[in-house]
């Protein structure tokens, strides 16, 4: 028995909107970064699912997913480095305190 495409898309949609909700409501930079990663993982699921069901013999969706994972890893490394530097200067990583960096 094969799982239908709608179930994959439902999981991807839930992950995407959980990421958007976390991005909008969280005040901690690490939580915001995790929310962005959830959004990117939802996109990767969509790439793989649409590749499997629309173009079953081809690999373009999987290559896009791998490329997207590599970009997300680089983005996460840069974001963590920025967050560490913010923590060294301000001693916390709350978004509301980032205005103190302007001084």
Provide a descriptive summary of the structure in words:
With 103 residues, the protein is an all-alpha fold. The chain has one domain: Helix Hairpins. The protein is 76% helix and 0% strand. The protein has helices at residues 5-25, 29-54, 60-90.
SSE diagram, text form:
Layout: H1 5-25, H2 29-54, H3 60-90
Helix pairs in contact: 1-2, 2-3
Distance between the termini: 62 Å
Number of separate structural domains: 1
What low-confidence regions span 5 or more consecutive residues with pLDDT below 50? none
Q: Helix and strand string, N-terminal first?
A: HHH
Mean pLDDT, all residues = 91
Give the number of helices.
3
CATH architecture assignment name: Orthogonal Bundle
Structure characteristics:
Helix Hairpins; 3 helices; elongated; mainly alpha; 103 residues
